Structures are given as C-alpha cells and as structure tokens.
C-alpha cells in the first residue's frame, strides 16, 4: 500500500466510450495530476464502455502505457471487462483488472477525492 496520505489521493472513474473524453479530459487530468504533483496518488478506473474502447484503440492503449510508466495506477472493472471480453487485453497492458465495487466503496469511505468522466 502507498504511504501517500488519503487526503492527497484521487481516483478518477472513466466510463465514456468517447475517445475525445479520454484524451482531453480523463487522461489529461489524471496524467498531469501526478506529473505536476497536484496529487500524491492518482488512480484511473476504467469502468463500463471505456473498457471496450481501451481494448480496441491503439492510441488509447499508448496513453495508458504512458500513464502507467509515470506512476498513475490504472484499474479496470473486471465485471465490465468480462462482459466486453477484454480482460486479457487490459491485463496485457498492465491494467489491474478487479471487481471494482468494493474497492471504490472503500476509497469513498476512506476519504479519497474523486472525479468521473
């Protein structure tokens, strides 16, 4: 577990299947948040239709790899990934594919900040 204080941690739920939302909102904020030290810990959560977009779009995959390399934690909802048949693709990218309801509830109760795109 990270030693970053909870009040310096943010999770970002990215659910949109629109690549523009990924590039110009969710990814831009998530990546810059860590690179510019706005937050000590950043977790991007791929949830819903964004899982399929990630599996099918090489540009999105490249952006995910960049964020992972810079320390952004990238998680995905396992149930969604299973529904779209993309678990293996996401895991190959280095995404932590987990059933996300319980961890999200825990983050909220612990006091993580959150954004949704």
TrEMBL record:
It comes from the Bacteria. This is DsrE family protein. It comes from Pseudodesulfovibrio sediminis.
